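Lab notes, practical 5.
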Amino acid sequence: MTRLLIESAALAGLALAGFLIAAGANAYIVQVLFSTALAVTLAVGWNLIGGMAGYVSFGQVAFFGLGAYTAALAMLNWALPWPLAILFAALIAALLAWPLGRIMLRLSGIFFALGMFGLARVLQIIVNALAITGGPMGTAIPAAEGPAATAMAMVALAAGAIALTMAISRARFGLRLAALRDDAIAAAAAGVDTGRVKVAAFCLSAGLAAAAGALYARNVGYIDPASGFAGTIELQTVLMVLAGGIGTVWGPVLGGVVISLLSTALWARFPTEQQIILGALTLLLAVAMPGGLASLPPLSCWLRRPRLGAFAPVAAPPAPVAAASDGAGAVLACRALGKRFGGVVAVTGVDLAVAPGEILAVIGPNGAGKSTLFDMISAFSAPSSGEIRFRGELCAMPPHLLARAGLARTFQTSRLFPHLTVFETVLLAACSRHRRWRDAVSAASALLVAIGLAEDAEQFPDALPPGRQRLLEIARALALAPAVLLLDEAMAGMTAAEIARVQAVLRAAAQRGTAIVAIEHVLPAIATLASRAQVLDNGETIAEGLPAAVLSDPVVIAAYLGSDDMAVA
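Output from the prediction step:
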C-alpha cells in the first residue's frame, strides 16, 4: 500500500507539473512537452503487449496512423469535436484490434513481429490509395488554436496510460499477463484463458496508440501516410521501452522521457545522423543493459513489477472436491485412446479409468507414450482416435476450461514462471478457482503451508532446488482443487524428505476425493501410494493390476525393469 501511495503521488505530481508547463511556458517548451508525453504514451502502450504480454511488435505504429486518420476524417466529415474524435479513434482501433488479435496472436516470436510490420505497411498502402484520405499528399485538419490545449490533453492521456498500467500490474489481469509472458502452456494449465488475456492487452495497446496518433494529428493540423506510419516512430518506441525496462510499470515512462529528450537534442544537432545514433544506442542497450534503467540498483527496487497479494501463513483446510462420475464410478475414463504423429504411432488403444479418491500409477519405459497420454487427457493435444470422458461428459474443452473444471496437471519437465514468486505462482491457479481475491490469497497461503513451501513464498522458482520446484508445480495444480490430478514424474529429483511430504499431500488429496493419475519412475515412492498400476510400452497397455503384482510380472520386467532384481515383491 505504501508503494502504491508513493507511485500515485508521483504520477499526480508529474501530471500537475505537465499541466503547469503547458499553461505557462513558451511555445517551444510546450511542444517539447507534447512530444515527451506522446513518447511516454506510445512506450506505455507498446509495453502492454510487448513487455507485459511478451509479444514483441514491430507494427504498433499501424494503430498510431489509423487513429490519426480516423480522428481527422471524423472531424472533417462528421464535424465531431476533437475530444470526441480522439475517443472515437481509440474505440475504432480497439475494435479492429480484437479480430486482428485473435488471428495474429496465434503467431509468436519473429512471426508476430513481422506480421505487425506487414499490417502497418498494408494500412499505409491503403490510405495512400484512397481519395478520402488525401492520398500520398495527405489531408489538412483544423489545427489547435495553440499548443497548450493539445499538450494538456497529451499529458492527461499519458497519465491515464500510466495509471492503467499501475492498475493492471496489481490485478489478476496483470498476474495472468506475467504468466502468459513466461510460459503460455503452463498458464493455460493453471486455468488462464491465454487467448482472451493477450487479445485484451492487444486491444488496450492499440487504443492508446490510436489516441496518441489522433492527438498528434490535431496538434500539427495535418496527416499524411509518411508521417502517420513512419517506421521511426516504431523504432523510437521500442528503444524507449528497452531503455527504461521492458515489462515494468515505470521503466517505459523513464525511457520515454529520456529518449524523447535525447532524440530532440540529436535532431537539433545531428539531423541526418539521428536515426543512425538511435539505432546504435538500441544495440548497445540490448547488449550492455538488457534490463534497462529499471535494472540499475538504485532504481530496481522501485521500478520492478510490484508483488501481488500478501502471503498469510494461516493453515486452513483445503476446499472439498465434488467429483461426479459417469455411471461406472470413474471420474475420468479414456476408451481406445490413440495418437499418431504422421506415420509414428505414439499411443494406441489405451483404456484408462480412475475413480474419485483412487491413485493410479502409470509406468513404463521412456518413449512408451505416457506424457503423450497426459497431453491428450489435459487437452493440450487432440486424440487421433478414441474418447475421453471427464465427470461423465465427453471432454471437448480447451485446456484452461478443463483446468477450471477440475482437471489439473504437472509436466514432465517443470514448467514454472521465472518472474512470478512461489506465492504468486500458486495464487495464479487459485484465482482460477476463486472469484474473490481474498479467498484466492487465503487458499494459496494455506496450500503453501500444507505442502511445506511457506518459507519460500517470496522466492523466485530459479532460487529453489529441483525437488522444491517440483513441489511448487504440485502446489499450483492443487490450488485448482482438482477432481483429477495428473502428475508427470512429479517426484523426480526430490530428496527422501520431500518425497515423504508429497506422499502425505497426495494421500490427503485422495482422502478428500481427488482422483490421482501419476506417471512415475521413482517406483518405490509410487508403489506405496497407488491402489492400481498400469504399464505402457510402445503406446499400448501391457499390464494392469495391483502394483506389487504388476511390478513382478515377467512381461513388465522384460519391457521396463530389465531384470528380476528390480521387481517389487
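Observations recorded by the TA: Confidence is low (pLDDT under 50) at residues 318-327, 564-569. The first helix runs from residue 2 to 24.
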